[in-house]
Amino acid sequence: MLIPSRTETGSARVRAAKLGGQTMDPYNASESTPRQSATSGLKDYFIGATPLQRRLESVRKQVSVLPTPSRRKIPQCSQLQEDVDPQKVAFLLHKQWTLYSLTPLYKFSYTNLKEYSRLLSAFIAAEKQKGLAVEVGEDFNIKVIFSTLLGMKGTQRDPEAFLVQILSKSQNREGKVLWTGWFCCIFGDSLLETVSEDFTCLPLFLANGAESNTAIIGTWFQKTFDCYFSPLAINAFNLSWMAAMWTACKMDHYMATTEFFWSVPCSPQSLDISYAIHPEDAKALWDSVHKTPGEVTQEEVDLFMDCLYSHFHRHFKIHLSATRLIRVSTPVASAHTNGKIKILCHKYLIGVLAYLTELAIFQIE
Amino acid sequence: MFLYRTYTVMSPQKRVKNSQAQKRTSQGRNTYQTSLSAWKVKEKPSDSNIWKQNPVEAHEHVDDQAEDTLQMAVGYFEKGPIKTSQRKNTILEKHLKTVENVAWINGLAPETIDILLNVALSGKFGNAINTRILKCMIPTTLISEDSVVKAISWLCVGKCSGNTKVLFYRWLVAMFDFIDHKEQINLLYGFFFASLQDDALCPYVCHLLYLLTKKDNVKPFRVRKLLDLQAKMGMQPHLQALLSLYKFFAPTLISVSLPIRKKIYFKNSKDLWDSAVLAVRLRNHGHFSEPLKLTLVPVDLHPLKRKWNSHSVIPKLNSGSYTKGHGKKEMSLSDHLSCNRSLPLEQLQSFPLLLQNIHCLELPSQMGSVLNSSLLLHYINCVRDESLLLRLYHWLSQILQEECIWYKMNDYEHGKKFTNFLDTIIRAECFLQEGFYSCEAFLYKSIPLWDGLCCRSQFLQLVSWIPFSSFSEVKPLLFDHLAQLFFTSTIYFKCSVLHSLKELLQNWLLWLSMDIHMKPTMSSPLETTLGGSMNSVATLIHYVGWLSTTAMRLENNSTFLLHFVLDFYKKVCDIYINHDLPLVVLLPPGIFYASLLSLDTSILNQLCYIMHRYHKNLIAAKKNELVQKAKSEFSFSSKTCQQFNHYLTTMVGCLWTSKPFEKGISIDPKILEKSGVVKFKNSLNIVHHPSLLSYAATFVLQESPEERTINMSSIQGKKWNWYLDYLFSEGLQGLKFFIRSSIHHSSVP
């Protein structure tokens, strides 16, 4: 554990960590405005309205009421997940994924995946050898595979997730995976309601591999399906939620430790504070603050984090709440504020993705 | 980059222009000559008037002579070289000179070009002569397609040398725009394509094909052939250009990504004829506008190392042809053989073209690109396709969020980029006369964080383009935040906000008046009744009233601010008549009295005008109410009328009858005594009103310049009327309207 040489923290800045890094959140500046009744009448106006107006309504709602729900379900093992090919699931676990939010894909069709892989591989080949034209369908030294991830969904309404892989093609052995990306939507109802059938909503995109490949493939998707990728950063507020929700998950046995990272802004280099706890201790702490069965509330999240803070303060006299939470690792999954995650436990895969989908949808609204 | 391509064949508009041009040229000449054969029969040096190249020319005689010699020269070349003649070379030289001179000065008629092309390519003369002839094949206005086809047929015979062939192709490319039709030439596409094999010809043939290629010329076997060539010859710029054109027509067959560095893809074949081509264009002026150009900027200008979304905010316009073949599992050959008649966007260059193809337009693959194309904005304005708008919505929301500067605290350079982007959006909104929902959503998210400085003008313009909706819904999300900034910022900011709110009101009114008159059943989702809509507008006006009253207090009744406030009410007072909407909202007392007692004449004048318009509107509303009392769903509250009457009485009291504030306001006599204005009643009329006093003084001085003391009270009776005329002549039109409409002349004091 690192301890900073100087600690210039004050109790006046308690809760700063929660708001820090949330520059995109409009509520920092305006929490005092009463907004509860703002959308009361809108619902009535919008009956039978067009998707566009439904979108606007959802934005208004999003802006006017609290940004995120104040209670969420503790991730459960999903029934649908049973259908997912275990090999594919294993492939998705223990890898670091960079998160992106993605606006709905226009005129995407699951029946054309073959055609897409042909086009995309020609596109990649053309991009890689700038200026040299290539024929679509030609044999390149790479191979692009589109495949669906059957069952990777929260509800039946969620569109099927799919996986894109780029394999190197060498003569003697079967290809090495160069790049992987997958698109999914877990409990995306709020988004699904606001688009017409021309669109496929897969708001969460996860990529593993060279950034330059992500760029090429992203560009192709943007051009082909008129969608838009944005990097999905996770702010400290959402990281604390993850910490609480993932600690709350029941585990048969713990494989990894629970660890938090805080960043102390100081020059010339920022200082990171790491705080590791045995996952069983973390669970015990959670159980002591947890009241509502099956759910996590905002109060519980705050209390959980506060307990950690005060414990740390008692030992090191450092107010962690004045620093910025940048990373959370639990036995279920780990997440970094820069939008990189790793999912460790296959049981709670869907649960983790559900929350990430929620964040992605929030970003594209 | 100088890569361009003329879509003459595909654009019907241009074809019309061409044939018109041809008609014109031939009309100009047909009195002298009907056809080539007619000329051939009469081929004699004495028939001077047959060859009148330019009938308008003043120096007819000189011209005639020139025509004669040209005719002789052409005749000479047509017959072929005369053997054995000793004078052969000198004669040949003389005739060549003649042709060259005429060609470079006036250009050659289509018929002459026809003959001489034949001569040059048939190999009757030597190489040097052929070259010289080809070099001077400069049309007066046009070249007939037939001559070109005939010339091409000579290429097959193999009578001309490689150099001549090259020169011919270069000539063809340079003169491409002057060929009257291209259908026949296009039929020879396969022939040209086969000529690509010839290494020497390849660059020029590529260029020609680049100009000639239509969508139906792009076939899988040709794609393969080109790729073979590429494999053989490597990355040649001319091949790249043709390949990228092929990719543009058939993205499902071929993929290419052009290098970032700019390159000139074709060596300029026009070099030889630069000045000549310019001259022809000048001659054709009016018939040819600037040739339609498709600038083929390297398709993707984003280096991989840079952030991938950041190369350019607005995507390039690209037809959505990618998605075309997606319906079928395999691209069948017939897909490519059957020529699709839809018009790719890259070729959409003019409004008439849009009108002709509006039913078969390929929409852009990335909807965001419409922001840069006014033609497509026209299109999305009339096609109310929901998914089209949704695509735009999603894209724009994300871009706004991602580009917004204070979300990422970025450098100045980026700030400028963002400002430019907002300007583009605002331009599009103005063009469409409609706001984008994504901008509204963006404002909801960003106004609470806005410092009121950054991109101020753009933000306030975005506010004025908020689509019509229920004001009470929007207020807490937006206007409450704006109000905080409003009250704490400078007077200039206040004025800008008031101005943009005026624009907002105007946009809403226009939208409503259109909406009500076009669709009486109201498909508007926001408000189900007219009353509801009016209510929203009324709330907006009351809100601005509240803002301005408070602002007036904060800014010590600033005249400058008051101008902007009254500007707003100038819109408000005329809603009933101008927009035919049943709404009359008066200005608040804080504004009314401040304007009435202002020291600034123009403010008073403006107020008078506004009161005059209120008067008109209320009378019109009352009248209408009487006519359709039963039907009218909306009735003006009697309170509005009472309030107006009260204002009116006060104004008349202050400006005319010198009986101000008879009712309502009572002033403590002690205060009046203190101020020394005991006879305050007489102090407020059109003569003594503080803002008009200087006018009165000037008037009196004009009447009697030698007077030592100015006696204002002398303005009475007849003089009063003269004084009025004087005021009106000074440009106080508002006052004039007000007095004419509200004061009966019997009451002259």
The coarse overall form of chain A would be: globular
Compute the number of strand runs of chain A.
Answer: 16
Percent in helix of chain B: 55-70%
Largest sheet of chain B: none
Oligomer status: heterodimer
The low-confidence parts of chain A are 1-48
Q: In percent, how helical is the residue content of chain A?
A: 25-40%
Series of H and E elements of chain A: HHHEHEEHEEEEHEEHEHEEHEHEEEH
Largest sheet of chain A: 11 strands, antiparallel
Ends of chain B: how far apart?
Answer: 79 Å
| Overall 3D form of chain B | elongated
Secondary structure class of chain A reads alpha+beta
Number of strands of chain B: 1
The two chains with the largest interface, and their residue counts, are: A-B, 73 and 79 residues
Q: Brief overview, please?
A:
The complex is a heterodimer of chains A (365) and B (749). Chain A has helices at residues 16-19, 42-45, 51-64, 86-92, 113-128, 189-192, 211-225, 236-248, 279-289, 298-316, 349-364, and strands spanning 71-73, 96-102, 105-106, 134-135, 142-149, 161-168, 177-184, 199-200, 204-209, 229-231, 258-264, 271-277, 295-297, 324-329, 333-336, 340-343. With 365 residues, chain A is of the alpha+beta class.
Describe, in plain words, how this protein is organized in 3D:
The complex is a heterodimer of chains A (365) and B (749). Chain A is of the alpha+beta class and 365 residues long. Chain A is 34% helix and 22% strand. Chain A has helices at residues 16-19, 42-45, 51-64, 86-92, 113-128, 189-192, 211-225, 236-248, 279-289, 298-316, 349-364, and strands spanning 71-73, 96-102, 105-106, 134-135, 142-149, 161-168, 177-184, 199-200, 204-209, 229-231, 258-264, 271-277, 295-297, 324-329, 333-336, 340-343. In chain A, strand 11 and strand 12 (271-277) form a beta hairpin. Chain B has 749 residues and is mainly alpha-helical. In chain B, 58% of the residues lie in helices and 0% in strands. The N and C termini of chain B lie far apart (79 Å). Classes of the chains: A alpha+beta (365), B mainly alpha (749). The interface between A and B is large, with 73 and 79 residues. Strand 4 of chain A pairs antiparallel with strand 1 of chain B.
